[in-house]
Write a structure and sequence with these properties.
The chain is of the alpha/beta class and 127 residues long. The chain contains 4 helices and 5 strands; from the N terminus they run ββαβαβαβα. It has a 5-stranded mixed β-sheet, with helices on both faces. Strand 4, helix 3 and strand 5 form a beta-alpha-beta unit. The longest helix has 15 residues.
Length: 127
C-alpha cells in the first residue's frame, strides 16, 4: 500500500464460482450485470442488477442466470478489461439460449445517474 498504488477497496477472499452480489431483485424484466458491488447498487435503483465481482462470468453464476431465464444486459466498466469481459460474458450467456445485450456506459456505472443508466440500457437493446 503505497501512495502510488492505493487500493480501491479491500475484499476478503471469496470463492466467486457461485457468488454474485444482487440488488433490486425482482425489479424489471431483465437483469443487468456489473463488475463491482457499488455499480450493482447504483444500477439496482433502476432494475435488478448482479455484480459478478470482476470481469469474468463464472459457470456457476451463468447457470443461475440461465435458470432465471430473464434477458440480460451486460454493463461492465468502459475500460479494456470491461469490454473484453462483456463480449465473453455475452457469448457465454447467449449459448445458454438467453437474450443478451451489451451496454456501453461512458463511465463506470457506479457514477451514472438513474437517467443515464436507463438510457444506456435502452440503447443496448437497440443495437
Amino acid at each position: 500500500f503505497t501512495p502510488d498504488h492505493a487500493p480501491k477497496y479491500i475484499n476478503p477472499f471469496v470463492d466467486k464460482s457461485n457468488v454474485a452480489y444482487r440488488c433490486g431483485v425482482g425489479l424489471g424484466d431483465y437483469i443487468v450485470l456489473t463488475e463491482a458491488i457499488l455499480s450493482a447498487a447504483r444500477v439496482g435503483r433502476v432494475c435488478e442488477s448482479w455484480s459478478i465481482l470482476g470481469t469474468s462470468l463464472t459457470d456457476g453464476v451463468a447457470a443461475q442466470l440461465a435458470g432465471r431465464g430473464l434477458p440480460i444486459v451486460v454493463m461492465l466498466d468502459p475500460d479494456g478489461a470491461g469490454r473484453k469481459g462483456s463480449t465473453l460474458a455475452s457469448r457465454r450467456l447467449r449459448s445458454t439460449g438467453l437474450r443478451v445485450s451489451i451496454a456501453h456506459p461512458h463511465r463506470d456505472p457506479k457514477y451514472l445517474t438513474k437517467q443515464e443508466i436507463t438510457e444506456c440500457i435502452k440503447q443496448s437493446w437497440q443495437q
